[in-house]
Amino acid sequence: MIDKRPAGCEDRALFEAFDATVLARIQFAFTVSFHIIFPAFSIGLASYLAVLEALWLWKKDEVYLELFNFWKTIFAVAFGMGVVSGIVMSYQFGTNWSVFSDRAGPVIGPLMGYEVLTAFFLEAGFLGVMLFGLNRVGPRLHFLATAMVAFGTLISATWILAVNSWMQTPAGFSVNEAGQFVPSDWWAVIFNPSFPFRLVHMVLAAYLTTAFVVGACGAWHLLRNTAPRRARTMFSMAMWMAAIVAPIQIFAGDLHGLNTLEHQPAKIMAMEGHYESHENGAPLILFGIPNPAKKRVDYAVEIPKLSSLILKHDLDAPLAGLDSIPEELHPPVRIVFWSFRVMVAIGFAMLGIGLWSLLCRYRGTLATDARLHRVAVVMGPAGFVAVLAGWITTEVGRQPYTIYGHLLTANSVSPIEAPAVGASLVAFIVVYFLVFGAGTFYILRLMARLPRDTMPELDEGPLRTAGVTPGPAAAKPHGGHHGH
């Protein structure tokens, strides 16, 4: 039998069974998941580069300059992929979310414009100097350029988190005759109730993500015995970051959770798996299988009253459940429940690695404990997984709203048909895996190419490496050896 349907009808029929809103949400989730990986890495790596250069200027130890040159190339690639992947999300505001853009544009548009005018221009202006200018502008001015790039990444995170936090806890606005959100107090818009907690939580997550990537790279080369001094320095710095920042992050996450309970209680209900309200103390459900049909968590492993203790610092404090709000306002519990647990589990695993490293440091085995090094290699991508899990928790937990409590997701989507969204989704998946898959593979290849030490280790004084001769010339910037 001959199929007489016009060309393209098969693809159209494939996607007509789907809802356009669902496909638009999948598309944005897919692109933002790819994008967030690169800023989470570049924010931490830019600060790490600034620290490396500061240590080189202070201690006059060439190993810090070699590590700087090694990681700056990786930073450049990650930064470029972050910029490219971020542009696509702005494009989707106009194609798939035009109603949201129209209504929220007076608030969100200026904030994203400020991000470009401040952070992106600052990063772009000094990036070239940081990458290529050491021998041209001198060490001190070059360090200023590196510090400005690091500062720019933090400013970028500040503006983007201000936008997203406003969508989570909107404040400082009014609604005009056209139904648009119009700022009435910019200070309240930017410094909305969840902004400080979410900014701190995200920046610390970026630092931990970078620390475990650097630590995995150093551990990998320690296991292979390539460039032991450089690898040892990398690994030691990364483990200091893990030991110091992981407990701070857990504390910051707890404060963020208390803030979320106050302003987005439904999200906390989904995270905790509390379908029912508890009048005399709520249990902490460690594991289980959420059952939305029967409004319960099957096979739950729980600790009585611990959730009330964590969230309200009182064993007998009452906690409301999802039964206290209309069912149509429930977030997707299964996704939020599990993504939250993945994030928390990785956070405590990072804390465990940090404490283990302190023990090894105390025993003098930090550079020789192969078990710690193998675990550190395995934990290399853990920060990215935790960041993705955290974003899934906060974004899916906000549903069914795009602007919490004010604009439903179903009322934010463009008047566009499912086949059009589906076709662009397939194109994004193919292109992203090809382009960013190749970029990620290239970064991994760069990490694997840390050159071997070419001189024996010395007990005293800086190690002289290839391209650097002992004497006064060794203290000067050089371009003969870039560590990659």
UniProtKB/TrEMBL annotation:
Residue spans crossing the bilayer: 36-58, 70-91, 111-134, 141-162, 199-223, 235-252, 335-360, 372-392, 421-444
Keywords: Cell membrane, Electron transport, Heme, Iron, Membrane, Metal-binding, Transmembrane, Transmembrane helix, Transport
Pfam families tied to this protein: Cyt_bd_oxida_I
Signal peptide per UniProt: none
Alphabetized GO MF terms: electron transfer activity; heme binding; metal ion binding; oxidoreductase activity, acting on diphenols and related substances as donors, oxygen as acceptor
Topology in membrane: Multi-pass membrane protein
Superkingdom of source: Bacteria
GO cellular component: cytochrome complex; plasma membrane
Compartments it resides in: Cell inner membrane; Cell membrane
Main location: membrane
GO BP term, pick one: aerobic electron transport chain
Region annotation Disordered: where it falls in the sequence: 459-484
Family recorded in the similarity comment: Belongs to the cytochrome ubiquinol oxidase subunit 1 family.
Name this protein carries in UniProt: Cytochrome D ubiquinol oxidase subunit I
Native organism: Sinorhizobium glycinis
